[in-house]
Structures
1.
Amino acid sequence: MAPRLDQSANKSPQSDEIGLPKKLLKLQKYHRFLSTLTPQQMPLAARGLAVSKDQSREFMACFPDIVRDLTKTGKHIDVPEASKWLAKLLQYNVPNGKKNRGLATVLAYKMLEKPDNLTPENIHLANIMGWCTEMFHTHQLLLNDIMEGTEMRRGAPCWHRRPDVGLAGINDAVFVQSAMYSTLKRHFSAKSYYKNVLEMFNEMLLKCSIGHHLEKQLTKTDKPDLSLFTMEKYEAITKYKTAYYTFQMPVGLALLMTGIDDPETHRQAKTILLEMGEFFQIQDDFLDCFGDPAVIGKDGCDIQDGKCTWLAVVALQRATLEQRQIMENHYGSAKPEDVARIKDLYEELQLPHTYSVYEEATYDLLRTQIQQVTRGLPHDLFFKILDNIFRRSV
């Protein structure tokens, strides 16, 4: 599908360029502004889920109570230092990200639940469920950062990089996971959907583990094996490592909380949400390379780490023998000149333009798929998530 060529047709070029990062100005040679790089509509992968200030405050207000319940309820009184450590662990790692998964859980619940059931108690439970998804996410990040040797996370040193943590961070990741299950038991064990919720968390844990395994198979040595970088492999890693728990899980949990456990309803929601999750990861890959670190909150390191990204896979699909040799020689190196050479190659292969066309086509395709959803699922829920990914107004 052709990209839109008439973006900002009625605006003066000078006014458009005010405040744009240099990276975006450099990419203006392509057919249209990339919505992924436009600051005023920075997407979900960079800014987080757009919710009201009241909803954000409501969600944040719930977290201290969860920490208090986990650390000051009279349990483990013979080891107070463990409770103190757990509080420190949770406060440092859980609430400081974008909270996409937690906020999406609450948003989905409020849009799926019958109005008469939107009591303060049920909304509070939805917020708690949202924090459980955030603890699940934290558990994944703690392990992932150790496996990949990541230095910084959310503008602060990764937990395992702290001098008082190190490889003990593996146990801390299990600690967070256990805290998540304790919170679920405390608040939901009497609910009819508790068993299904536990099954969903366990299923997501398995899927994430598969995703990490698939990714690690491609980077088992210091030098990535580019012959394994196929679109099939990339899509499998993306689905298992990201899409399931970032998109399907929040909506799936909300469906269960509202009493909807019909397999076909969950299947239809899953189909669309996994497609959104795949694009979300592709968007994240693009931002890692071409985004402004001041906006996205991190310095991109996918090239240095030799990761199997959408950009790398498409580049290898298009590369001549000479260009493929450039990938072989420079990809996976932390040397600034090697990273710059790969980025130059991406632009030579017109990957920003390819992404631009892909972004437009994916947006239109997902809107069409949402319109075809049946089983009484509200289209507005999926449109809300979609527009947060693309940061659009429709």
2.
Amino acid sequence: MRISVLVTYFESMDEPKPKSNIGDLFDSARLEGRYLKICAPMVRYSKLEFRNLVRSFDTDLTFTSMIMADSFCRSEKARQNEFTTNKVDTPLIVQFAAKNTVDFLSATEMCYSYVDGVDLNCGCPQRWAMTDGYGSALLKSPELVADMLATVRRNFPSTFSVSVKVRLLSKSLKATIDMCRKLESSGITFITVHGRTPADKTNVPVNKDALKQIKDSLSIPVVANGDIFSLRHADAMHEITNCDGVMAARGILSNPAMFAGYEKTPLECIQKWLNITTEADTDITFQAMHHHLTFMAESLLTRQQRVEFNNLSKDKQRVLDFFWREFELQPQPYDHPHKIECTFDDTAYRQRVCVLDTLDEPINITCYQSENTDGAYFMTKVGESADIQVKEDVDFMDGSMFDENEI
């Protein structure tokens, strides 16, 4: 039995931060003969602090880290841990990993006031995601994906962006184009396409010809993703594919100033990161702060310096001393806007899951019992590792920045 899930949108609801119209951003860029420069949704990395950093270096649009929709819906703890924002954190799209309409719609409702759009992850190729039916596993069910997108689309204003991130299908380019057209018909604002299949490793070149043909086959904006490590790469991708946006992951993590034309991370960028991450009003952990600096400074350090820096774990002062000694950098006063105290109304979600729990629905949702749990995802993954290691594009790595399965 299929359940139609609808909500009523109230135009009068208060908005705690300014809104950006993502569709207008694409329109303006096209009229000006340029493309949008986009920071990808990177698990554990695309946090508020990093988003604010890359915006100061010509990034036009940012995404949150990929968030598990089921945990976001079920757990207040997960919501507060996984999502933070402030009043200058725009344009911003929240990306959810979801495999049913209830979770995707409900999570979108809860965060609507704080973001400018929502994105459905259908591109994560990691084994855990595929096994659990998330990410690239959804590419096998385009009808389900289209229904999820269409449901969210018809329940929110046209000014609110709804999008999806996909990969090339292994079967054929025609099959990929057909899938993208089906998703386009759901009314989405734009689509992001990574130029590899889920099975491809990072040593397989991105298929730019496929991206061009997909762009030529659709009327909505198309964002190209894969192997973008500099502004030169982004410009070349735009020139070859005529894409409306270029999304960077590994490249912008290593060099947050890449879209401003820097070939390697400038000291100015590291200085800003030190300023941001020493503010009292930040949720960034020492581990995340240290990992970002490891990536940013890699091209500036000798091998011996990299070894020394990588061993400065769990001691923030030693990290600060290192950058003062090597580059005469130290944290400076920085006017980083305070976080918004986000509130998430889960009333509609509670009602939906309790109704579904009384029906014979193969959706694996039980009646909402308590907001004090970590949520289904965290409950299953925390036991496996003290630090959850999942990834869309990148993750914390020991010894090397990326493994062969990453985007």
3.
Amino acid sequence: MITVQTLVVQVKCFQEIINIGYAVYRIHGLPWFRSLSWYFLITSNYFFYGENLVDYFGVAINRTDFLRGLVTYHRFISFCLYCGGFVWFVLSLVKKYYMKQFSLFAWTHVALLIVVTQSYLIIKNIFEGLIWFIVPVSMIICNDIMAYVFGFFFGKTPLIKLSPKKTWEGFIGGGFSTVVFGVMISYVMCQHPYFVCPIEYSETLGRMTMECEPSALFRPTDYSLPSWLSGVLGVFGVSTTISLYPFVLHSLSLSVFSSVIGPFGGFFASGFKRAFKIKDFGDVIPGHGGIMDRFDCQFLMATFVNVYISSFIQTDSPQKLLSQVLYLKPEQQLQLFHMLKESLENRNILELNN
């Protein structure tokens, strides 16, 4: 359900950006611009969502011959679809509109990069566990609200010219509040397997499941306090160790990014709107502009979360590796089996399990 909602938001954001491009160049008779833009959106989604299907449904898809062929040649099919759009664009060029058509072609691709690519990363984060989606999204919302509150009551020092109403007091107050909020919500969510388990396909159940034994990242771990603090606490008989969920410590990195770098997604959007002399990206939300006005920081945050997971957290799961193995030729699968068996025997792991 969240994946569908993400797709709906993506389409609306893309539509708002494309509509701005169309309005900026004011050429209502421009051949095929809207059709080409939507074609490239569909092609991009076919590529990215297909990649997700391969990663998370590979074992199930492998059983269906028709789908197996689509997966095997997925990237080639995606490239052919893109080439079709490229040829379509070249054939649609009109002499008096060359510059504007190429400008809008670039506009479409930038929109795809900003919206489609980053929404794809949001979905990848969701499949790693709902906590990787809910916590970052909540941090951005918290930072936005608390920055406004602190700025409203204490703001005096302007922060950036792009947004005259933003103040240093709001920026700092919002950042501090986001760190505290991030620790609290992370601590609560780590206690519920529903939020921390990755979304995977179960062969036994024949469907996607969110049931698992939480990894070490979401189990309480004892940490020793710094020596200088341990000495002070030891005098009063207070324990020198503290039990924390490791994810809570990782949430500090997420909250710092959402409060320090995240707002620059909003500043970027403000600069974009000022460049084209528009107040909002759209009017879908009364009093708040368009969908893009509300999600400008979320896309940047999603990219950071995905990079953070791949850099510091993620290891390939057995299910993902199995889905890749199943696409090997039978002789290659046998070769891999014997190599793995030999390795396990040499390390006495296979004997222990037997």
4.
Amino acid sequence: MSDPTIQTFCCHHTGSKEDLAIRIMDEFNTESYNIVCLVSSTIGIIGSIYQIFPCKISSHSDGFGNKTNSRARNIIIWLAVADLMASLGVLVRSSLWLRYKSIIPLPDDEISVLFCSITSAWTQYFYTATWFWTLFYAIDTLRTIKGRDSHPTLYHSIAWGVPAATTGIGLSILYIPNATCHNLKTVTSAFLRILPNYCATYVPIAMVMIVNPVLYILAGKEVEMTVALPLAQFTSKERRVVDTLKLKFFLINVVFYVCWLPNLVNGVMIWTMWFNMPVKIIISVWYIMALMNPMQALLNALVYRRWNTNGKKYRPTFSSIHKELNLPDELSPLLGSEPPRMQLSPLPPGINNYATM
């Protein structure tokens, strides 16, 4: 999992019971925790691989003689790659922790400190990348529906570059120069040493939780207007397409909240109850994070996939919707006759990436 509290365990400690980490370890069953991490990370790896290699990326016709690559599919693949690498980091770290029966390095164990900090940085980096790819999927969804171009180069620059900066800065402040982040003498030194890493972790999560629902609400309204306005009416066929898209957007948001809200809860509890830490509750939240963080890959494979309707692949493209809307059995509910048909202008071809479930 990706959590700044666990990352502080990589620091040297004195072995004193005054250390918060030592107090927590006294009540923490590290073996069962690492087993949960192993199981969830393995499931996450399987989910990531399923997303990356279910079928080859192919071009499809937009109904007007053009060929377009699937913008959405490319983003999903990179999201799955980041999930895969993060789950591998959790798997390796938990395997070695389980093998050597220790999470907190011994006071003079430099090798364990180095291993712990590297695996923590690896996991933190790739999970941060997944948060940005989740954000860019929502952004590109709205841009596609509006008929605007994608910016894959910009997406890659931010999704891989910003996590490198935030992870590097946050963990460098925490570990350099001597990896001693326990028993800091003043509250100010604790804030300056530990808080930046918390911000580097939780600010991107909170940003996605706030921005993505707004983007998907706007995308749903845009689809509804795009489908309904040309005919000035909204039949069951249009409603089915719009409702399916809105449901998919809603479930994407739910998955992100389920996987990462426990991390925010943990952070709030740590900083608001520092002097009266509810250790048992904190440990329970850690188990939830250990289960749900790597599980993101599997849940993403479920909500980003193509959906089935009535046992068949439901592939409504907007060009096919145009054809459906011109069927003679679509009668006006007021006149009892076929409504006047307006000439439909070609809709953005890339919208099929998101209408195809």
